[in-house]
Amino acid sequence: MRLQGSLSIERMCQLAQVSRAGFYRAFQAQEPQQEEMDLRSTMQQIFLEHRRRYGYRRVTKELQRRGVLVNRKRVQRLMQEDNLLALQPKAFVSTTNSQHACEVYLNLAGKMTLTGINQLWVADITYIRLRGEFVYLAVILDAFSRKVVGWELARKLTCALTKTALERALAARQPAPGLVHHSDRGVQYAAQEYIDLLAQHQLIPSMSRPATPYDNAACESFMNTLKREEIHAGDYRDLEHLREHLEEFIERYYNAVRLHSGLGYQPPEEFEQSLTADRSTAAAKLSFFRHREDYRSDVSNNNESGPQATPAIIGVDESPTGYSLASCSPAELASASPVKSNCAQRQPL
User: Fold this and answer.
1) Where are the beta strands (DSSP E) in the chain?
2) Residue 90 lies in a domain
3) Collapsing DSSP states into helix, strand and coil, what is residue 230?
4) How far apart are alpha carbons 142 and 97 in whole angstroms?
5) What order of strands is seen across the sheet that includes strand 148-154?
């Protein structure tokens, strides 16, 4: 049911001095089939426009954005009756090779409180199967707006793939020093030339702990969406044909059109534009917690004059991501490796 200008159904009922329940009973009694047909037609139009990528939740939100007042349970029932089934994901295959001698860096992403864009980027790699070969896609997302800021497609899983994606992201966004770049511990991200590029632009590397992808969940979610809504629904002749479709999906659909549930059902670009009006956005903060066990005495002392019990949280060190890097490089700040090793000569698998 469509809105009448700027008046809601509730407001019109108040002006006409009738109850909402009475209005809906009268409407359904007078034109039940027409109202049902209009709703089904609009739902099918949305479903086809988005190429089977939307489930009932996003279809409901898109209907509401178009001025149609409808409950998501009704949309789910009608989509099931009309066989409007969204694309489903396939099995996960890992592309991470973390068995290398390169330096590994501290995980900073899980300790950050984001307040704006260009504070935390998350990166990941996935494979795509074509008719006669496997190709690889590297992607970088802004963790705050979920926008894809850089990507690259190649036939080989090397550091050149991830480095090109990073270079495109840097050229497009031009972030201030102190941005945190988070990835897994794959050799493509730990290679020395990749770390050098981060240091050149004063970006701070951050890496997930083994078997802990939660801090990179935004990029993992995008890869899942890409596979389900584009890759598994298409048939590509070769690498260049796939590149054309990826550019269409990423640049003109995912970033600009697709509703994102994590952004209040807004597209990433629309979400970022809504932030430009607020120029007083605070910097992101890092919080580090130190627990009682780290400061507990080896010898128990029951005397009153002995050391007092240490609180569970000794202190919280919070600092914005835009702090000066004059006294230390990103590698020196975030390094978690006991011994440095030169990875420049090691070829990625």
Assistant:
1) 112-113, 120-129, 134-142, 148-154, 180-183, 204-207, 285-286
2) no
3) helix
4) 24
5) 148-154, 134-142, 120-129, 180-183, 204-207
Please answer whether residues 182 and 109 qualify as being in contact, where contact means their C-beta atoms are separated by less than 8 angstroms.
Answer: yes
Indicate the length of the chain as a whole number: 349
Instruction: Say what the pLDDT of residue 170 is.
Output: 96
Could you give the 3-state DSSP secondary structure of residue 65? helix
Taking the mean position of all CA atoms in its chain, how far away is CA 207? 16
Q: Both 125 and 217 in a single domain?
A: yes
What is the sign of the dihedral through the CA atoms of 140, 142, 146 and 150?
Answer: negative
Note whether residue 317 is domain-resident: no
Pair of tokens at residue 45 = 């139009």
Q: Measure Cα distances from 134 to 154, 160, 209, 242 in Å.
A: 9, 17, 27, 12
CA dist 59 and 7 (Å) reads 23
Looking at the structure of the chain, the number of domains it has is 2
> Residues 70, 63: contact at Cβ < 8 Å?
yes
CB 128 within 8 A of CB 95: no
The reply to whether 75 and 171 lie within a common domain is no
Same domain, 68 and 182: no
42 and 177 share a domain?
A: no
Q: Are 44 and 136 in a shared domain?
A: no
Instruction: Give the end of a domain, one of 250, 275, 300.
Output: 275
Residue 265 CA to residue 334 CA, distance in Å, equals 35
> What's the pLDDT band for 28 if we cut at 50, 70, 90?
low
Same domain for 126 and 190, yes or no, is yes
Residue-wise pLDDT tens digits, 74-128: 888 888 776 666 655 554 444 444 555 577 788 888 888 899 999 999 999 998 8
Question: What's the pTM value of the predicted model, to 2 decimals?
Answer: 0.59
Range of the domain at 61: 9-81
Q: What string of DSSP letters covers 238-307?
A: SHHHHHHHHHIIIIIIITTT--BGGGTSB-HHHHHHHHTT-TTPPPPEE-----GGGG--SS---STTSP
Nearest to 48 by CA among 22, 83, 84: 84
Domain-embedded: residue 245: yes
Collapsed DSSP state (helix, strand, coil) of residue 154: strand
| Same-domain check for residues 39 and 117 | no
With contact defined as beta carbons under 8 Å apart, do 215 and 182 qualify? yes
Same domain, 126 and 232: yes
